[in-house]
Design a protein that fits this description.
mainly alpha, homodimer, DNA-binding, 68% helix, disordered N terminus
DNA sequence: GTCTATATTTCGATAGAC
DNA sequence: GTCTATCGAAATATAGAC
């Protein structure tokens, strides 16, 4: 199985909550669920296979390795965040661009909670993906517009931006992430209410940009 | 390496202190570093032992199991957060109590970054600790004042508190956590500057409590 | 307290039948 | 596409010498 063609298509067409059309997507849905609940390293292929109803070996018909399953899930998020790349590249730390960026991220995050949780809770596993030459070499990653996290990091590390403003940019992201991660404490609250409350918080955090 | 543990004696100079606890604390320091950098599940006892300079089997003289090492690190955080328990028990969602609580947490978090990171990045490993009967039975946990996280959860889940205020409480915690987790983007910024910037953000988030 | 083994388990991954 | 069976590696944990 070649990653180059087969993995790119579902990444752009499938939402995290989408129905499990193909076996491949069913595997990803189950894996996403288990990776979030138990962590990537603590989840064995045997468990994934058991939940799917077939044997562990069958997974290898659809995915080259366990890491390639994780990679496919990363590509799902990649597809979701593609839309904010223009904002990032234009220097989102200027003016009110950052607030508009976070506004869009709030919607994306609320509609794809589990995918966000996956990335927040398994940082190291994704970092290992990037480190692993055997994964990179297949050429699915490493496109110029793939490194959304790198663009964020560059913006937040820019020393020409005042420290207090960088803290506020980071804090706005953390506020969204924190509410998302502890979303079970807010169970029953409609997404729309959560979104507007979050937007109000973000606006207060970013309201007064220092000179 | 940077240590900020209040309860335990730092392991760097261990001439006068008890020799038995010295190695034990050194193990914990190394384990904390590796668990944060690589994750709990991805860190083997062999790696910990190698960094300490002795063999893997020697660890079992000091700790009953790998999970007991993690438990000891949890108890370090437990000691740090004991001071805020009165605020939590008195109902921190009222008035400006929450802001005072977060103010204190900011200092604790900044002085013990790695310990905070450990808990944020290895949530599932700690959850497994609580699930595992073999660990609980030893009676180290399960005291009534041990469940700081439970008290937080209870406060944030309280339906009698307006949703917008609960979001703001959560967001203030997320802001602190977010800045801490991405602290490498703010490398070089003194802790004092970080703390005051964070306090300003938290104040803006919590400034106007809804009726 | 630390060592050298080794027991035991689990995992990711492969081979080959169907 | 899925199966059974198994390999090899690595992990936790134990046993016993020093």
């Amino acid at each position: 199985m070649e990653l180059g063609d087969s993995a790119a298509v579902p990444a752009t067409t499938t939402a995290a909550t989408g129905p499990a059309s193909s076996t491949r997507e069913r595997i990803l849905d189950i894996a996403l669920d288990l990776f979030v609940r138990k962590g990537y390293a603590e989840t064995s292929l045997r468990e994934i296979a058991a939940e799917l109803g077939f044997s562990k070996a069958a997974l290898y018909y659809h995915f080259e390795s366990k890491q390639h399953i994780l990679l496919a899930l990363h590509l799902r998020l990649h597809g979701l965040t593609e839309g904010v790349l223009p904002l990032l590249e234009d220097g989102a730390s200027a003016g009110d661009t950052w607030e508009r960026l976070v506004d869009r991220l709030i919607d994306i995050a609320l509609q794809n909670r589990r995918l966000i949780e996956l990335h927040v809770r398994n940082r190291e596993a994704f970092a290992a993906l990037n480190r692993d030459a055997a994964i990179e070499k297949h050429g699915v990653l490493q496109h110029k517009n793939d490194d959304v996290e790198g663009l964020f990091r560059a913006l937040l590390s820019d020393p020409s931006v005042p420290t207090e403003w960088r803290v506020r940019m980071l804090a706005s992201l953390g506020a969204v992430g924190g509410v998302l991660l502890a979303a079970d404490a807010l169970a029953g609250v409609p997404d729309a209410e959560l979104a507007s409350a979050l937007r109000a918080v973000v606006h207060d955090v970013l309201g007064n940009r220092p000179a």
